[in-house]
From TrEMBL:
Residue ranges of domain Protein kinase in the record: 13-218
Any one GO molecular-function label of the UniProt entry: protein kinase activity
Top-level taxonomic group: Eukaryota
Biological classification of the source: Eukaryota, Viridiplantae, Streptophyta, Embryophyta, Tracheophyta
Claim: ATP-binding is one of the keywords in the record: yes
GO CC aspect terms: plasma membrane
InterPro entries, per database record: Kinase-like_dom_sf (IPR011009), Prot_kinase_dom (IPR000719), Ser-Thr/Tyr_kinase_cat_dom (IPR001245)
UniProt keyword list: ATP-binding, Kinase, Nucleotide-binding, Transferase
Protein name per the record: Mitogen-activated protein kinase kinase kinase dlk-1
Pfam families linked: PK_Tyr_Ser-Thr
Length: 218
């Protein structure tokens, strides 16, 4: 698909605040009853779906007044967001308070920090290599689109550990900052300080090189 899907909020059941927050958002889990589009029947032009499926709803603070700058940023990144090497980004919805929410696949092991806590830091070399390969593949796709992530750290890496493999996906690509603030004109630096390249503080500019620094810190 060449677009993000608009999903009616009534399509979600068992919406629950899981008491996790980002700097400008709060996180909910939910069940998407229809589920994402799976296969298009070209004859009837009807999509089959694979729901119900558990998802994450990322509620954007103050998004009732979403700025044009944030909309432009979303438009700039939307094709990249749909790439399979990044966390599955299904679409957008709006909750009863008129705040916008991103609809993202639920990754059962959470972010990299929670996964490391869960495993008590005991990882085999194969798992480490698999996760680093997945993260670097996602970063390569972002840079191939001539874009930068903007806020890469362990909290923006989602992990799913299956029986014979482990997958780590980058999320929140390019969508940092408040939904109601100006982005391109802002002088504020967004990020977790240990993961921000030193030159960013001097030049106030995010680059592909600074993203590689963030990856190295992970």
């Amino acid at each position: 698909m060449d677009y993000l899907e608009w999903i009616d909020f009534n399509q979600f059941d068992l919406v629950e605040n899981i008491n996790k927050r980002g700097a400008f958002s709060s996180i909910y889990s939910a069940v998407w009853l229809e589920g994402p589009r799976w296969n298009l029947d070209e004859e009837t032009e009807v999509w089959s779906r694979n729901g119900p499926i558990k998802v994450i709803l990322k509620r954007l603070d103050n998004s009732q007044n979403m700025s044009q700058e944030f909309i432009n940023q979303l438009y700039k990144y939307y094709k990249c967001l749909q790439n399979g090497t990044l966390a599955d980004f299904f679409g957008i919805t709006k909750d009863p308070t008129s705040c916008y929410m991103f609809v993202i696949r639920y990754y059962k092991n959470g972010n990299l920090y929670s996964y490391l806590d869960e495993s008590m830091g005991m990882l085999c070399w194969r798992d480490i290599a698999d996760m680093l390969w997945s993260i670097s593949s996602g970063l390569h796709v972002i840079h191939k689109h001539d874009l930068v992530h903007g806020n890469l750290h362990g909290g923006n890496i989602l992990v799913e550990n299956e029986m014979d493999s482990i997958d780590a996906k980058i999320t929140d690509t390019g969508l940092h900052g408040s939904a109601d603030k100006q982005i391109s004109s802002s002088q504020q630096i967004y990020g977790v300080i240990p993961f921000v390249a030193p030159e960013v503080f001097n030049e106030n500019k995010l680059t592909k090189e600074s993203a590689i620094y963030s990856f190295g810190m992970i």
